[in-house]
Design goal:
2 copies of one chain form a homodimer. With 337 residues, the first copy, chain A, is α/β, with parallel strands linked by helices. Chain A contains 13 helices and 12 strands. Among the domains of chain A are: 53 residues, lambda repressor-like DNA-binding domains (434 Repressor (Amino-terminal Domain), Orthogonal Bundle); 132 residues, Rossmann fold (3-Layer(aba) Sandwich). In chain A, helix 9 links the parallel strand 6 and strand 7. The relative contact order of chain A is 0.11. At the A-B interface, helix 4, helix 6, helix 10, helix 11 and helix 12 of A face helix 4, helix 6, helix 10, helix 11 and helix 12 of B. The first copy, chain A, binds a DNA duplex (16 and 16 nucleotides) through helix 2 and helix 4.
DNA sequence: CTGAAAGCGCTTACAG
DNA sequence: CTGAAAGCGCTTACAG
């Protein structure tokens, strides 16, 4: 495999490297004739620019970077895709960086800033723990998407999310309205002040309002995956056959729970009702379709991009709540007799 | 956000940049004392290396790159993840590059070769069309995974896949053994000589062996997604109520079909049997669980890495078939009376 | 409109 | 064990 540099192209075309560079970057100050000559050689060589060299030179922060944590999360992926769409119209070019579940998005920010000239960021699915103080330190515009960063009070960070607490409460209301009184909640760590804690609080709000006492044993810490939901359900229902509904914090988890119940000979929703969270396509196609809290993918994406562009133009950090909606599903029914 | 270079680190630590570079790269020829001094400054600065500069210098092809086409394909993603696992043990470092469905993996190869010192490749989910002549041109070791490249006769390309034709035939046998005689097949383009064409042939092999005449109208070109399967099924069953089984070329498609059937008031498997392909986790968790052809993720991954390493050590290009297996599922049953 | 030159942040022989 | 210097492939003022 032959690798050509712009020097090779320049020599072959009989021009200077700077001229080739200009052509490659679509600069206007090149004669039509020269441009053509250069492009011919580029074509002929199958020349590909070395972006390492390019980025090394170009140091002014131009890009906005979308950092997505978790390659497998369909919901976050959808949001990222939408963001790119909305970003098309704006002057700032956007790039997407996927990082692993365990990676540090703040390291990723530094890396992107240093290497790719990314000077502003949208963080998708970030967690607001100690490390997020890094955001304050970096000082560049940041938008947290699907995370509420209001209380952290960053000067340079906006956020977009649904009201997780209210959403969860509404879903629990709907379950309780079907007569259920023993509802297990499967989700993430409920301590602290992140979205999982708020969702948990929302569930509690509803129970309290309905005058139902909640048995702490009926909260199950579970992984957000099919397997996680499955295993949690199997373990849980060994001891809690009297529970008639399971509310989860993710659609994947809900589907895992549903499959587990079925394998234990329980029907959903006749014997046990199940709810999810996110409003993913898969949940809609599942049988039974999973009742879920839909986060408005498109609006989260649009708002995030808007807020970032706003800050880039000197606007203040703002915190926006977008409307969730409850997705009807076949997975919830009247409590069994 | 402050960006430090190794010059800054060197100055602060009171050593030369070359020394800092050596420490950063874990070279042995640095005194313990100096190393410590440098690492302290690195820590203090939160220094991150600029990989652009690094890659720009390092030009000897070291990496093996795994190119995955399609970020959303759970199956390919699983294979890629496994490959990384297996690659750990080998001397060659591996890196993964995700490209869009529509991107050209051969362009990606050139790019990676030029920029990241990737001198050998595993192509996951590549299609073997005209563009693949590029593989011959590049000359570096390539492994096609989940694609049969035997007939293309590249000197420098191995391949790993299941026998798609036999697999599809086996699945069709199983369906026909349940008494079905009207089976629709939903899948990709059946012309040419790629895996879709072979799967189609496999289905035909079985029908022929069973003495069943196939109605060409009962082949449906469908997208490989939930939505694709759904729409195809709705359109198809408007006109073909007498069909009692649908064989598909992907689990996603099969789940879409199942949901569509249910929405049309048909039960799976009581009224219509459905089968998938790939053996994904989601299909196993679906209700009904989807009978599928499992491609052995782990073995495809292991074999691909092995074949590549083999070629890197001068071995010949080889073409390996790994064993598929039929996954039992609740989605297939005796034909309705 | 075009070219010669400096420099982006690293690594790697080459001296010492 | 350590440092000075060249150079990776580009871009971008600066001249002309």
């Amino acid at each position: 495999m032959e690798i050509y540099t712009i020097r090779d192209v320049a020599r072959k075309a009989g021009v200077a490297v700077s001229t080739v560079s200009r052509v490659l970057n679509g600069r206007p100050d090149v004669s039509e004739e020269t441009r053509k000559k250069v492009l011919d050689v580029v074509e002929q060589f199958g020349f590909v620019q070395n972006r390492n060299a390019r980025n090394l030179k170009n140091t002014k922060p131009g890009y906005a970077a979308i950092i997505v944590r978790g390659r497998r999360n369909a919901f976050l992926n959808d949001v990222a895709t939408q963001m790119i769409e909305f970003a098309q119209g704006h002057k700032t070019p956007f790039l997407v960086k996927y990082i692993d579940e365990e990676d540090d998005e703040f390291d990723a920010m530094r890396q992107l800033y240093a290497e790719k000239r990314a000077g502003s960021f949208i963080l998708l699915g970030s967690r607001l723990d100690e490390r997020c103080e890094a955001v304050r330190a970096v000082g560049v515009p940041v938008v947290f998407a699907t995370v509420d960063a209001e209380r952290a009070e960053f000067d340079n960070a906006s956020s977009v999310c649904v009201d997780d607490r209210a959403a969860m409460r509404a879903m629990m209301d709907r379950i309780l309205d079907q007569g259920h009184t023993r509802v297990a909640v499967f989700g993430g760590n409920r301590d602290g002040d992140d979205i999982f804690a708020r969702r948990y609080q929302g569930a509690m709000d509803s129970l309290r309002a309905h005058g139902i006492e909640y048995d702490p044993d009926e909260y199950v810490l579970s992984r957000f995956s099919l397997e996680g939901g499955y295993e949690s359900a199997v373990r849980f229902f060994e001891k809690h056959q009297d529970v008639t509904a399971v509310m989860t914090m993710s659609d994947m988890m809900a589907m895992g729970v549903t499959r587990a119940l079925r394998d234990m000979g329980l029907r959903v929703p006749e014997d046990v009702s199940v709810s999810g969270f996110d409003g993913t396509v898969m949940a809609r196609y599942y049988v039974p379709s999973i009742a879920s809290v839909r986060q408005p993918v498109e609006e989260i994406a649009r708002k995030s991009v808007e807020l970032l562009c706003d800050m880039l133009e000197g606007g203040e950090a703002r915190h926006v709540k977008v409307d969730y909606s409850l997705v009807e599903g076949e997975s919830i029914a009247q409590v069994r007799a």
